[in-house]
Amino acid sequence: MSIKVRIPTPLQKLTQDKSEVQVEAKDIRELIEDLENNFPGIKQRICDEKGVLRRFINIYVNEEDIRFLKKDKTPLKDGDEVSIIPAIAGGAL
Fold first, then answer.
1. Alpha carbon distance 60, 7 (integer Å)
2. Which residue has the higher pLDDT, 90 or 69?
3. Beta strands in the chain (DSSP E)
4. Contact 64/40 with Cβ under 8 angstroms?
5. Of 13, 29, 35, 60, which residue is most buried, by most CB within 10 angstroms?
6. DSSP string of 67-90, one letter each residue
7. Eight-state DSSP code of residue 92
8. For residue range 35-83, what is the model confidence (pLDDT) as tens digits?
9. Cα distance between residue 38 and residue 25, in whole Å
10. What is the total count of domains within the chain?
11. CA–CA distance, 40 with 42 (Å, rounded to integer)
């Protein structure tokens, strides 16, 4: 089962400058582990020391926010597209 993952610019140095990678995973938790196996160090940028998704990282499956699905237990199927998006903080107006 092949899942396309869009990698944000700040994490592309860990993926050999690739903006998209393919992984094999049945849910988001497994996707993160597969990313870590192929691109060491990426998990610590996405998850905290307990393995919980960092609050400033947003993950979307087919444009749906996993926070409104099953979070890291959100199931994946062949052909799904996952986007990892770091939150952006604004400045003063």
1. 12
2. 69
3. 2-6, 20-24, 57-61, 64-65, 81-86
4. no
5. 35
6. GGTTGGG-B--TT-EEEEEE----
7. -
8. 999 999 999 999 999 999 999 999 999 999 999 999 999 999 999 999 9
9. 13
10. 1
11. 6
The pair of three-digit structure tokens given for residue 87, joined into one six-digit string: 């939150």
Residue 93 lies inside a defined structural domain of this protein: no
Block residue for tokens 């444009």: 63
Residue 91 is assigned to a structural domain of this protein: no
Q: Indicate whether this model's pTM tops 0.85.
A: yes
- Write the CATH number for 69: 3.10.20.30
Task: Provide the domain limits for residue 30.
Answer: 2-86
Pairing outcome for strands 2-6 and 20-24: antiparallel
